[in-house]
Each structure stands twice: as structure tokens, then as C-alpha cells.
Task: inverse folding
């Protein structure tokens, strides 16, 4: 068996997403399965080193996984030729300098989103990596969630006819912390620390919309900070300076209209934390993170408006659940394997830092749209 060993600097994986999705469910899972199989006699094996500021947390992560190397000295591993990939899952404000350093050291770059706070910096990171000749990618995990994969299969088979509109609902109730502890970190609600619903979620909606429905052409967005005060991890009240909700409408190049409500202040009465209703001329779908329900044209009821009688139609009963037709792996792991194949085998990988910059651009223009209370165009970011 021929093994391609790939050294990976994993910076910032002591956070929740970095630990659970990138380390445990992706890289450690790939190691335990024997690497990424690329032929019956060939595989790619990650060789990670964990980097962070907290020595205790790094040691604990090594004890929980098959990873045994860690360091608090980022500069030393940046200069080590044994590590060819730099991965960044730090807080957004720390990402620019580290990614720039990695590219200048000739490391291939894979990082979380948003890639920066401003479009200028996000686009600069893409150009730095491009000009340095290093392979680069941004995490766009939702594309490999079972629900979105099922949607793409329906679309590929012509189920929808012409898609007309998309209505997305995302979010849940994040406790303020006064009585019940919050389930999200306090920096999420401070603009000065890189927090905010728009910078967080419009980066996701950009790649979801661009890949599933069509390229975003215009945006109208309204930001809100519905809860003005929360309690931090030390039990101290603090003022919320970032938006905790966003109400966004996107016009696509192909004429489809998408509307997404995103909020940390909603109580969920829907099928999942994210649902998208996709309506087409021949059929509709309710797309969740894992499950999809469909209603074809031939199964569409014909309601008549009459508020004076009880509704005779069971609107839920006319939808059918899409069955499990494939095996679905962890979405983060799937993209990690694709990036490793891209680095080792030079296979195509279209989710570059340019795509990350597009996400930041949508968020930045979304904030501008909210401030100006009007529709704004999205300028093209050249490759």
C-alpha cells in the first residue's frame, strides 16, 4: 500500500466547531479509517499537529483522539517543511495574518469562514494565495448535508421544472444568560469582536444560493438587534453591539427570488433549525438539514379561501418524504477529503478563497443595505 502522508497545521481547533467537526469528525475519523482511499493500493494519510494558545486544551484533545502532536509555537511549524497544509479555525479577527503567513511560507491553505470581516481583506487573502501559487479552500460544509444533497438530486432529475422562489428560515432561541446559560459564545453578539448574524450567516447563504439556485445579483437586507443585553461566560452583563437577526431578500441572475430569515431570537416550530421551501412550476420541496419533503404538481391541492369554515384540507398530508437513497458522511469530512485529494492529486476544487471572499462581500453589502434601507448590487470579484 502506497501512502501519501500530508502534514497539516490545525490552528484554533480548541473551539467547538474546530474540535467536533474538523478534528474529531473529520481528520481523526479519516486517520482511523486508514486515510483517504484513492485506489486499492494507494491512500492519503493526514499527519496533523494541533496549534493553539491553551496548552491544557491541546493536551486534552490529543488524549481524546489519535493525534499526538501539539504546540503553542505557530511560527516554528509554519517554517517546518513537513507540514504542507495550514488550516485555520481561529476567531475571524485572527485569521488574516495567519493565513497570509502560511501562504508566504508556501503552505496550502484551508480555512473556516468568514475568511475576514471585510471584502477587501477576504479578497486580498485569495490574491495572496493565488499569487503565491498555493492551493486554497474555504469550508462550505452545508453543500454536503444530506438534505441539500437530496435537493440537488431532485433538481438534477428535473423535479421542480423552473424554480421560482426559495424561502429559508434559520435560527433558534439563544438564551440571554440571565437565568439559563447561553448556548453560544458572547463574542457572537459584539460587533467589535467580529460578531453578528449577517457576517456569520450571509457567508453561508452566499455559497448555498450560488451552488444550489444561481448566482446572487442584488440584495436587500434588514439587520436587527432584538435583545440589547446578554450575560457573558463570566456571568457579567454586556451590551449587544452586533445584529442578532437578519431579514434578507436576494435576486439571482436567473430571476429566482430567495428570502432568508436568520435569527437567534425565534422559537422553532418547523422541521429543522434550517428549512428552505423551494417552489417550482412542476413541484415544491421543503429542504431541511437531513430530510426533504416534496409535493408534485399532480399532488397539489386546490384550496379556496373561506375563513368561515374549518380548513378541509390537510396541507401536511400532501407531502412525501424523500427516502434515504445514498450513504451520507459528515459534511465537513467530505470536503476535507476533497481538499486532500486536491492537494495530493491536483483534482479540481472550486471552493477556493475567492468563494470565501464572495461570502464576506454579501455580508458586507447586506450590512450596507440595512444601513441605507435599499437594494444594492453585488459587483463581480475577478478570479
Result:
Amino acid at each position: 500500500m502506497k501512502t501519501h502522508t500530508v502534514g497539516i497545521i490545525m490552528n484554533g481547533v480548541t473551539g467547538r466547531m474546530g474540535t467536533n467537526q474538523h478534528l474529531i469528525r473529520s481528520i481523526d475519523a479519516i486517520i482511523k479509517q486508514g486515510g483517504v482511499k484513492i485506489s486499492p493500493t494507494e491512500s492519503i494519510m493526514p499527519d496533523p499537529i494541533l496549534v493553539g494558545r491553551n496548552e491544557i486544551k491541546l493536551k486534552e484533545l490529543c488524549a481524546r483522539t489519535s493525534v499526538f502532536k501539539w504546540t503553542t509555537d505557530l511560527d516554528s511549524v509554519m517554517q517546518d517543511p513537513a507540514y504542507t497544509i495550514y488550516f485555520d479555525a481561529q476567531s475571524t479577527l485572527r485569521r488574516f495574518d495567519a493565513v497570509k503567513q502560511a501562504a508566504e511560507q508556501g503552505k496550502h491553505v484551508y480555512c473556516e469562514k468568514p475568511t475576514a470581516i471585510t471584502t477587501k481583506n477576504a479578497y486580498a487573502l485569495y490574491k495572496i494565495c493565488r499569487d503565491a501559487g498555493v492551493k486554497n479552500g474555504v469550508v462550505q460544509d452545508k453543500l454536503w448535508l444530506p438534505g441539500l444533497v437530496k435537493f440537488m438530486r431532485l433538481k438534477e432529475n428535473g423535479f421542480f421544472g423552473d424554480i421560482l422562489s426559495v424561502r429559508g428560515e434559520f435560527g433558534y432561541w439563544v438564551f440571554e444568560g440571565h437565568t439559563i446559560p447561553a448556548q453560544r459564545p458572547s463574542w457572537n453578539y459584539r460587533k467589535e469582536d467580529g460578531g453578528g448574524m449577517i457576517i456569520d450567516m450571509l457567508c453561508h447563504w452566499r455559497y448555498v444560493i450560488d451552488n444550489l439556485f444561481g448566482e446572487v445579483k442584488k440584495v436587500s437586507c434588514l439587520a436587527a438587534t432584538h435583545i440589547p443585553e446578554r450575560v457573558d461566560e463570566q456571568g457579567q452583563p454586556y451590551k449587544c453591539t452586533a445584529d442578532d437577526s437578519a431579514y434578507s431578500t436576494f435576486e439571482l441572475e436567473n430571476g429566482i427570488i430567495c428570502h432568508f430569515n436568520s435569527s437567534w431570537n425565534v422559537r422553532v416550530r418547523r422541521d429543522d433549525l434550517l428549512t428552505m421551501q423551494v417552489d417550482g412550476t412542476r413541484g415544491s420541496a421543503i429542504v431541511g438539514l437531513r430530510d426533504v419533503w416534496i409535493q408534485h404538481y399532480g399532488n397539489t391541492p386546490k384550496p379556496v379561501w373561506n375563513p368561515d369554515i374549518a380548513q378541509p384540507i390537510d396541507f401536511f398530508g400532501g407531502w412525501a418524504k424523500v427516502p434515504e437513497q445514498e450513504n451520507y458522511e459528515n459534511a465537513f469530512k467530505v470536503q476535507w477529503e476533497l481538499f486532500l485529494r486536491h492537494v495530493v492529486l491536483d483534482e479540481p476544487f472550486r471552493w477556493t478563497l475567492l468563494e470565501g471572499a464572495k461570502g464576506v462581500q454579501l455580508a458586507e453589502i447586506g450590512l450596507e443595505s440595512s444601513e441605507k434601507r435599499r437594494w444594492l448590487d453585488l459587483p463581480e470579484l475577478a478570479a
